[in-house]
Amino acid sequence: MPFSMSHIGRITFFIAVTTLSVTAGATDMVVIVSAKSPVSVLRVEQVAAIFLGQTARFPDGSEAVPLDQRVGSPLRDTFYSRVTGKTPALLKAYWSKMVFTGRGQPPGEAIDDAAVRHQVADNPELIGYINRSALNDSVRAVLVVP
Known about the structure:
This protein is α/β, with parallel strands linked by helices. It has helices at residues 5-26, 44-51, 74-83, 88-100, 113-122, and strands at 29-34, 65-69, 108-110, 126-131, 139-144.
């Protein structure tokens, strides 16, 4: 049975809607700082430098301490893929080298969005990332992860 144009149109529409839904859901991640922090916006490169231990300062000169989601978290894997271009394996190798050479330590970890948000809210030096749906007034989004 050959496909009619209406079938092809419906299939194309379904693929487009599915792609948009997946893309919209996948971008609902934000980088956060405490609402008490003077930092209001960061670029992807600045966030990458902080989370890779290449800088320990926000652009205004204040101390920046990154806080990761737990190892194996899909949010963590997506964050590093989008912000640094590193897979979990590459990230592990990166930090092994940094620790071995004495040039840095990986960020501390929290178990989930609520724990990251709570710790970041209480400490203006911390920076973390959470699902956008977990935002509240105690923290400020400084980057929507592309």
